[in-house]
C-alpha cells in the first residue's frame, strides 16, 4: 500500500479552489487565493489538488480511446449509453457528457496549475528545492492536461495564467502550434526543476524522468500525420528529439525490465520498476479508489463472486472487447488472460461468451464499493518508452537501428511467451503495442499518430458491427472530438465548432 496518497483525493480540502465547468466561471478569485497560500504546506496541498484532476483519466481513456478504437465494440443493448455515439462515430457528440468531462476536468486542472504558479513565491516557500519541485510538478501537470486536450480537440483556448471572467470571454481557441509551444516550454522547465526520484513517503509524484518520457511522446505526436485538419499531428519530424529523450530514460533512469506481465498490474506490486508515472489510487475509505475495474466489467460477472467485494460492483452494462483484438493474440500469449475475461457463467446459469477488460481487476481484493478499487493506473511504462523508441527509429530517427527495434519487440514477446521476430515493421510494432497496452488507453492515439487510423478503422467497422449501428467508414474529421456545446454558447462566436460536427 502506498505511503503517499498523491492524494488525489486530499484535493477535496481544496474545494475553495475549485472552479465550475463553464468558461465564464473559470478563474479563481484573488481574495480566495491570497487567503489560502501562506506557507509551503499550503502549496503542497494545492499541488496535490492539481494532481487531483488525474482521477478521471482512466475512465476517460477507456471511453474516448479504447471505445473509439478497434479494441472495443461499445454498442449497448439500448443504444442510449453515453459511449454509444463515441463508439458509433456519429456527428452529434457536442452534447455528450463524456466529451464535456474531457474538456471540463482538463481545464479545471489547468486552472489549478495556473493558480499555484501565479502564487508561488520565495517569500512564501523560501526553500529553493521545495519551491522548484512544486513548480516542476505543476508545470508537468499543466502540460499533461493541455496535451490531453490537444489530442482530443485540436485547437483549444490557451490560459498560461489566472484570468478574470472578462478576460476569459475574450480568449479564442489558439492554434495547435501555440498550444504545443506551452506544452514544450512547461515540460522542458519541469525536466530542469524536478528530482529524478523521491523517498518512500513521496512515491508517486512526477519525476524528471517522467517529464522526459512525456516530452518524447509529445515529439512523436507532433511528428504525426496532419490528416488535413487542426488535430494533434503537425508533421514536425521530431523523431530524433524523441529518440534522444527515450534513450536517456532507458539507459539512465531508475527503471528496469519486469519479467512477469501479470505482476506489472498486481495490487501487491504497485510502483514496480516498469512504472514511469501513474495515477495513484488507494483503498480503505470510499472515494480514494478508482472505479475503473467495475466500470470495465459487468454486473453479471460481479454477481458470480463472493468474498470481500461489495456488490453490486457495476451499474452499467459490459462493453465488449472486440473479437478482432482477442483473435489477434497468438496461441499461448500470456497477456490475453491478464487483459481479457473471455467468458463466465452468471448465477442463472447463462454462459456469457463476450469478453471484457479485466487487466485492473483482482477478485481477491477487499473492496468497499464500486468506487474503491485500490489499483494504480499506468500513464507511462518503461515498456511503452522502449516501444516508442522502436517507433521513433522506424519513423526515421537518426542513431537507431533495425536490430534495436527487433530486440525491443522480442523482449516484449518473450515476456508474453512468444517466439521472436525479425525485421519488425511499423505495422508489426503497432500490432504488438495493441496487445501489450490493451485497456490502457493508448490505442486510438497510436493509430492517429502513425497515420493508420482511417485504414484500420475502415477495415474493422463492417466486420465488428453486429448491431449495424456504426458508420460504414470513418470520417477523417473524427480524428478529434467536437467542442462541447456548452462552450460554444458561453459567448456567441468565441469558438467555432470542429469540422464534421
Automatic annotation (TrEMBL):
Record's signal peptide: 1-18
Major localisation: membrane
Residue ranges annotated for the SusD-like N-terminal domain, each copy included: 38-220
Keyword Transferase tagged: no
A Pfam family of this chain: SusD_RagB
The entry's keywords: Cell outer membrane, Membrane, Signal
Subcellular localization, as worded in the UniProt entry: Cell outer membrane
Coiled-coil residues: none
GO CC entries: cell outer membrane
Residues in RagB/SusD domain copies: 352-501
Family from the record: Belongs to the SusD family.
Protein's UniProt name: RagB/SusD family nutrient uptake outer membrane protein
Natural source organism: Pontibacter qinzhouensis
